[in-house]
């Protein structure tokens, strides 16, 4: 966990940038909506702008987790603010109304219930779309990422067209969506195989017996073909139930022609898959997530004569690199020069490749029937 040193003075200003040692400028607590009786803090967002040369940059919108029990905040960025902005993204972290906190039952009939938080998030996304250009962000290159209940939320926002449609936006507003270890891809299925405490949390958020709302809130059941659903990256922690549900979601996406990549993070806890992103020394999560977004936002082409689409683009991170690159490789790899000449190859599974022996230049990398390209720097 990052340690923040509090300075002895306070900058007291509304919507003013707070400048820290990081290589970004943060604009805090921007109101995206105002509702009588709702805490304004819950309807606010933060924008992180890289301190890099001018020009519109791709945008990543982060939805925090909280397990549908009133926890979580837009401030829970850990290292993501730094790694995303250092990679050239304008980052937006949003708040939304929270589900009720335990103990329950009994359930408060006046509690916040789905789809209220998702509708708040849709309003935040509308604000981003309309205003992010003022912060150097490109509204035509937006991705979304969320952890736990936030992972469920970004999944339903990316599959149920009525949510973004309610604020006048299509599903194609997002080019990429990354879901970090949610459980609610199919809520009726999840409730049938989960513990009683988990069932209670979901009943708190989606209704005790409202099976129609459970289905409406299930991303895997809302996917349709040819309606703009973005490319997905799904991550599951060491929990086997989460792994099963991740595959269920992936199968539903694939059956509707939507590009999807998956990663089963064996050995990582539910919290790890989020907290590791950008953490110093991480070799598991950072390169995979960053590689996904980089490839998703790029129109990659190679000199290899083969039919390719976003479903067989290889994740490579960091890119460019001068020492090592990380990939997902189970059957071996081949590296080609930009004109198609084989440079080096291996028949062994690996997650990292040393490239110190390669001259500076552009290379093509094939592994497990996927292909990508990377730049070797000095």
What this model shows, in words?
β8 (231-236), α9 (240-255) and β9 (260-264) form a beta-alpha-beta unit. The protein has a 9-stranded mixed sheet with strand order 1-2-3-5-4-6-7-8-9, sandwiched between helices. A 4-stranded antiparallel sheet has the order 12-11-14-15, with no helix packed on it. The chain is globular, with a radius of gyration of 21 Å. The protein has 2 domains: 17-297, Rossmann fold (3-Layer(aba) Sandwich), CATH 3.40.50; 310-376, Immunoglobulin-like (Sandwich). It is an alpha/beta fold and 378 residues long. Helices cover 26% and strands 25% of the residues.
**Tally of DSSP β-strands:** 15
Portion of residues in beta strands equals: 15-25%
Second-tier CATH architecture of the largest domain: 3-Layer(aba) Sandwich
Q: In sequence order, what are the helices and strands, one letter per element?
A: EEEEHEHEHHEHHHHEHEHHEEEEEE
The protein's oligomeric status is: single chain
Number of domains: 2
Write the layout of secondary structure elements.
Layout lengths: L16 E3 L4 E8 L12 E7 L6 E7 L16 H7 L3 E5 L21 H16 L5 E11 L1 H9 L3 H5 L8 E7 L6 H7 L2 H11 L4 H6 L2 H4 L8 E6 L3 H16 L4 E5 L7 H4 L10 H12 L26 E6 L3 E5 L4 E5 L3 E5 L6 E7 L2 E7 L2
Parallel strand pairs: 4-5, 4-6, 6-7, 7-8, 8-9
Antiparallel strand pairs: 1-2, 2-3, 3-5, 10-13, 11-12, 11-14, 14-15
Helix pairs in contact: 2-3
């Amino acid at each position: 966990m990052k340690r923040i040193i509090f300075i002895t003075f306070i900058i007291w200003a509304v919507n003013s940038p707070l400048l820290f040692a990081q290589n970004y400028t943060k604009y805090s607590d921007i109101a995206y909506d105002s509702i009588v009786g709702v805490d304004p803090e819950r309807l606010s967002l933060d924008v992180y702008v890289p301190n890099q040369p001018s020009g519109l940059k791709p945008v990543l919108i982060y939805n925090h987790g909280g397990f549908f029990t009133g926890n979580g905040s837009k401030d829970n960025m850990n290292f993501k603010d730094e790694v995303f902005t250092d990679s050239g993204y304008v980052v937006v972290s949003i708040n939304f109304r929270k589900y009720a906190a335990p103990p329950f039952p009994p359930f408060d009939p006046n509690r916040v219930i789905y789809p209220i938080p998702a509708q708040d998030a849709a309003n935040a996304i509308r604000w981003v779309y309309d205003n992010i250009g003022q912060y150097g962000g490109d509204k035509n290159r937006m991705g979304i990422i969320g952890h736990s209940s936030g992972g469920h939320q970004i999944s339903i926002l990316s599959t149920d067209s009525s949510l973004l449609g309610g604020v006048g936006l299509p599903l194609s507003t997002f080019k990429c969506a990354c879901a970090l270890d949610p459980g609610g891809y199919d809520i009726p299925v999840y409730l049938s195989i989960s513990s009683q405490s988990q069932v209670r949390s979901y009943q708190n958020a989606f209704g005790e017996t409202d099976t129609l709302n459970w289905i409406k809130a299930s991303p895997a059941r809302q996917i349709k073909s040819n309606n703009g659903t973005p490319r997905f990256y799904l991550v599951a922690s060491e929990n086997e139930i989460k792994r099963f549900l991740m595959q269920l979601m992936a199968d539903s996406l694939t059956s509707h022609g939507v590009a999807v990549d998956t990663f089963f993070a064996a050995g990582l806890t539910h919290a790890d898959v989020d907290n590791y992103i950008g953490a110093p020394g991480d070799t598991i999560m950072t390169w995979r997530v960053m590689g996904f977004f980089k490839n998703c936002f790029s129109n990659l082409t190679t000199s290899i004569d083969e039919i390719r689409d976003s479903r067989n683009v290889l994740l490579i991170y960091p890119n460019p690199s001068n020492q090592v690159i990380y990939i997902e490789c189970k059957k071996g790899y081949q590296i080609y020069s930009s004109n198609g000449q084989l440079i080096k190859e291996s028949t062994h599974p690996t997650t990292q490749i040393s490239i110190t022996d390669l001259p500076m230049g552009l290379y093509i990398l094939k592994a497990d029937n996927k292909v990508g390209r990377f730049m070797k720097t000095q």
